[in-house]
Amino acid sequence: MTSPAKTRPSAPPGRLNRRVFWPAAIIVGAFVLMAVLVPGQLAKVLGDANTGVVNGLGWYYVLIVVGFVAFALYAAFSQYGDITLGKDGEKPQYSVFSWFAMLFAAGMGIGLVFWGVAEPLNHFASPPPGTSSVASDATIAQAAMTTTFLHWGLHAWAIYIVVGLAVAFAAHRKGRPISMRWMLEPLLGKRVEGWIGDVIDIVAVVGTLFGVATSLGFGATQFSAGLAYLGIAEESIVLLVVIVVVITALATVSVATGVDKGIKWLSNGNLVLAGVLMLLVLLLGEPLFVLREFVQSIGDYVANFIRLSFRTMPYQGASGETWLGGWTTYYWGWWMSWSPFVGVFIARISRGRSVREFILGVMLVPTLLTFLWFAIMGGTALWQQVYGDGALVAEDGSVSTTTALFQMLEGIPGGSVMAGLFLILIVVFFVTSSDSASFVVGMLSTGGDPNPPLGARLFWAVMEGAIAAVLLWAGAQAGNLTGGLSALQTMSILVAAPFSIIMVMTCAATLRALHQEHRRRVRTEEVLIRRELERNVGELVEQHVNGPNDG
Predict the structure, then answer these.
(1) Which residues contact 340 (CB under 8 A, 6 or more apart)?
(2) Angle between helices 237-257 and 195-229 (to 10 degrees)
């Protein structure tokens, strides 16, 4: 083990950690520069690397994500579940509603708006290889919804729990700074204070910036497509850049107000607006069908959970590898690339929760809300496709991912008004994601300060928007509007490969830490019980000795 004398301590909380900040900034800057100068070559190299990783390691991704689900359930229902993520008896920092709202907005957020209609339609239009050629549209539609549930359900949140639980335990129970490096302290000891810890935090910062900048860019394209679809404005690179700039400006304002105001208020507002829109689509669409479909899809998901969790399609050949690489294993890599951001954020807001409350709250409630969202949005779209005019899937079998939501809204009363409200929801979700990510990266780059300096938070918020805007502009100049962002998205997935090893080590480290804490609590309770017994015995002896004299 590295001796304290040779270990370079990380920066004190509140002070910029130059060994994390500058390497992360240089890596991101170099990548953006290459995306601007040689976008085609970079996209090809990253595409080939991504194909090799996803296809070659798809079985590994599937296996470890199942392991993450098992880890989360074991930690929740074992003797470790009663351990508080904070001091014993400490009350939660946020109300249940605010906690769930921030979990939901940070963990899924804009992805639900983007994919709520598009993913079930894509699985319906292009079913997984091996689907029976004589299967009815109803059967394919049900399978499409179940597959969507797989990608957005327990597995995704279990990935976030691995990081979130480890960071929350280290920060709130052990008093460590809120930083990724401390996840592995139970295994690596003081090594996490040196270069190993710096590397972990750098990977977390880079992965977070890549993921959030990608979401900002692709979200801007959906927002732009929505404006064009509604006839408000024509799509152009100028419009895209303006959208990114406006969203970034709003995010910086929210960042300046901190978690207790900006992020909390926006998350609560998000949840309310999303709930209102979801209820309107349900009531004005096909409520009876959707509710029946929601219940049946949950049953189908539970019934096929084990089979789908281990699905690697070995007998489907190249077509199976391609499908999995574009969907299931791609999602597992994407969630892992986002886990530093979401994990650190949910750890930050979960002080005072028990291990069991943390895991079940993070795993079950957002999952059920996500399922309800997809059942209403995707279920309404599938009804329109199967029993309506069938116009959501083009004649060539393609689905317009960016406009599928607005096409679905056309088929229900008041769709144009709701489309405008959905555009507002998209913006607020973007602001919340950027705000939360800036806060997390600020913590990681300042030694784990739970309230990082305003300057650091503003810098990272502006950096996320600048990366998205520059890559959109570079892609437009190269004739491919989303080319630079696609490369950035691919880079995020590639970062997940080495980080997955850290996550596996984190599971082992967390179980070790929980076991040690449980043993400490048991020993403390035994000492207290022994002292109480000794005191009671002493009192009885004293009463026995003094009793006759008193008489």
Answers:
(1) 163, 180, 203, 204, 205, 207, 208, 440, 444, 499
(2) 130
Q: How far apart are CA 56 and CA 253, in angstroms?
A: 43
pLDDT in tens, 21-67: 899 989 988 888 887 788 778 778 877 887 788 778 889 999 999 99
Dihedral sign for Cα 170, 176, 177, 182, please: negative
What is the Cα–Cα distance from 93 to 178, expressed in whole angstroms? 15
| Burial of 134 per CB tally in 10 Å (0-12, 13-18, 19+) | exposed
Run of H or E residues at 150:
helix 137-152
At residue 450, φ and ψ (nearest 5 deg) are -65, -20
**Residue 511 · residue 83 · CB < 8 Å:** no
Per-residue tokens: 34: 């290459």
**pTM (two decimals):** 0.89
Task: Give rounded-to-5 percent helix, strand, coil for the chain.
Answer: 80, 0, 20
| pLDDT value, residue 44 | 80
User: What is the residue-wise DSSP string for 187-204?
Assistant: HHGGGGGTHHHHHHHHHH
Q: Please, what are the domains in the chain?
A: 26-529 (1.10.4160)
The Cα–Cα gap between 310 and 56 comes to: 16
Tokens describing residue 377:
């949005």
Report the alpha-carbon angle 164-327-388, nearest 5.
Answer: 115
Question: Which two structure tokens, joined as six digits, stand for 71?
Answer: 């880890």
Dist CA 399 CA 126 (whole Å): 9
DSSP 171: I
Q: What is the DSSP string of 222-291?
A: HHHHHHHHTTS----HHHHHHHHHHHHHHHHHHHHH-IIIIIHHHHHHHHHHHHHHHHHHHHHS-HHHHH
Q: What is the pLDDT of residues 200-236, one digit of tens each?
A: 999 889 888 888 888 888 788 889 988 988 889 888 8
The pLDDT score that the predictor gives to residue 182 is 94
Single-letter code of the amino acid located at 137: D
In 3D, which of 483, 484, 495 has the Cα closest to residue 53? 495
- Token pair 């194909």 is at which residue? 51
Q: Which residues pair with 354 in a beta bridge?
A: 84
pLDDT of 433 strictly over 90: no
- Rounded to the nearest 10°, the torsion over CA 474, 479, 483, 484 is -10
Residue 2 and residue 195: Cα distance in Å, rounded?
A: 11
